[in-house]
Amino acid sequence: MTSNVDNSNDPQYQPQWDRYTKTLVTLVLLVAGVYALTLLAPVFQLLTIAFVVAFLMYGPARFITRWTPIPWAAAIGLLYMLLIIFTVLLVLLASPALVRAVNSLGSSAERAYFSLQREMLNYQYEDGVIEVLGTPLDLNPIVVPVRNFVLGARLTQGVDDAIVGMPPSEIVPIDLRQVLDGALNIAGSLTGTLTSAIGGVVGFLSTLLLAIFISALILIDLPNNRATLEKWIPRAYQREVRLLIQRIVYVWNGFFRGQVSIGILVGIVTYIQLKVMGITNAEILAVITGLISLIPTIGGIIALFPLGAVPLLQGSTVLTDISNLGVAVLVVLVSLIINQIIWNIIAPKILGDALELPLPFIIVGVFIGAALGGVLGAFLVAPAMGTIRILVVYALNKLAGRDPFPEPEPTPEPAKQPAPPQQVAAANAG
User: Which residues contact 182 (CB under 8 A, 6 or more apart)?
Assistant: First the structure.
């Protein structure tokens, strides 16, 4: 006789799948996960920014709810309101300075172009032949095309006089139609570039606002998600999962804390350097340099390009006896020395052992991250690699039958509660 008794609530009832079923379900889950990642590819950047913002806002929100009577949802709302106010004020304060800097750079570029035209008008063919260690080096194959391009839009009588001494084969007659076509093409390219840049900025701001909204929803629902996740994890694995998450959070916390500290330090030192050397727009350059320095390892090298471009166009208000090229080279050299000191002496002490990755791995990872995810990929690839390292070490220990976390789990410190109002009033009265 068949029993119809339901044993689902029996504590001794523990149905198990056989090895074949477990393997099949694991493969199905892997295939479904890969397919889900392909579906999420168009919004991967959006989700990445949302999770990063949620991660950064979790610490302050936890601090507020731990030390104040404000509930979790209200703390999230307060933090995001402050974030929006700060962002709006930053845009309002930075926009005029940024516009002035762009206009100043545009005027400097125009003056530099006219100066280059004057230099090319006085250029002679023999000026392109220089001696290097007693050996003549002909630079005319490089200089002459540049000269023809620069003087193409300068329809003056002096052009015919300036080409005296040049071989006939190197003289290119000026065609007015060609010049006008070239000017129209350049104007069209600039218009297209400007339109693309504006569209890119608007698209990024839209993505950022949507990511901030999604991150707020993630944080608000985080307590419910944590309780659900604890129900899914078997009791025997809860300790390992808890310690695994703690180590991953330690990597990301250490990375963000270290990189932001380094970026701020680089920005402050760069501002002082540029002010001392008399470089204009020092504030904008310092902010740009600090932001670029957030990219691990190679950010300081990339930041050298804007640092060299501005003094090359505008020169210095202090080093007036040095040419613009000399000032640019000097600024780059000083900045390079400062970056070496920061990244080799100060940065290791700030970052500590959060990542525990060899430097060549980080450099290669930054290039791979930049190729796959642009600036965001280059910035986040280091903590992602640190997370992968932790997961691989955990998996290897489990495959070898070892405890991946043999050290005892630290006992959490009890949270300090704020003093009652009566006690505070008595202390103030005393």
Answer: 152, 153
